[in-house]
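Pilot study result, target chain (396 residues):
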Amino acid sequence: MRISFFSTALSVLGVVWTVCGVTLQAQMIVPMGDDVASRADVAPGRVLYEQWELDLALAGRDSVAGATIIDDQIFVTTADDRVYAIDAANGFVKWIYHLPQTVFHYRAPVKVITVDNDGPVVLVMRTLADVVDRDSGRLIERVALPLSAGGSVVADACRMYVGGADGMLVALNWNPACGRESGLAWRVRLDGPVASAPVLGIDGSLYVATTTGQVYAADAHSKRFHWRFSETDAVVGQLIVHATGVDVASFDRKLLVLDPVTGDLLAGHRFSSRLTEGPAAWGNQRFQYCEDEGVSAFAVGGHGRAWTAPKVRSILSGDDDRLLARGIDGSVRILNAMTGETIDSVSLSPGLRVVRGSTADAVFVVSSGARITRASMFVPDFRRGSGWLGARDRVR
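Predicted structure:
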């Protein structure tokens, strides 16, 4: 296992040293895809600055099945049924967990919603969900799912909610400390399969959509339905629920905004082809990808598109001024957050995953062989205009 850190003084020298048996190497990432960059052909700013790199050195034919950021940790799931919990700040592996079921279909880990926001994580499999301590990886509770999970789950301190490919939505008592018998709390049949995780609102409402185009809001405690919206096509992407609406992307080429209390249609945005994934949120903006158009930005509470970036595949991170995005061509792009225009871009080697960071200035680049790099799009002030950006591309 090798961990490398960004260091301004030592990156020019390429210094390598060993601490407690772990090899540390200082370096900086230059435009990815360029093996060597010179001062003449690299403008200040056209880099991702590496903050650390970790090579998990997977055995045999094992490979990365998926990666997810939760707060200050990145969780990497491999095809060999292992989950690695990595400290996002420094790249250290905190624990490794062996899943009891084979990973046929990646389901992202989720955090249990608690009042103090420090709940455990749930590792979701086809018919099992393991609740584990996120600091130690210790198993807290193993929950048997009475269905094949269509997506991931949502969980609070007492209950877990999941939709199935069979059209069932179930609530499970998972925490014995809540004073309820573990197991099924309630179940209800929906008008079609569920392909994404339900969403739990702050008022105790549960939101879920089906591949037959139904969107539901129900009381999470009693399963009583508040409303159902039926005027759309298949929904396979994740819903986004916020104070002013429920964002729904569907196969009928529309991004809909529904009233979270009544289910009434508040706004609809039409695209040129069907939407096969849900919107993404960053700050006060929502972003929707359409295969024929690229990514469009919408302000929360707004009534129209702020901009469309045809060469962008997804938004990774950012702030009020700049956004870090993945291009359709695999590049990483810095965008003007107000206009969507590309300020700069760098190329990535094919086959790399880019996982959005938990902070505005960070992303994580993950190779199929589990080499993980945390990088920043921001050029430190002391490097601006310095000219020296030459180094070998370390992200492959």
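One observation from the pilot: The domain at 279-347 is CATH 2.40.10.480 (Thrombin, subunit H). A full batch analysis is planned for the follow-on phase.
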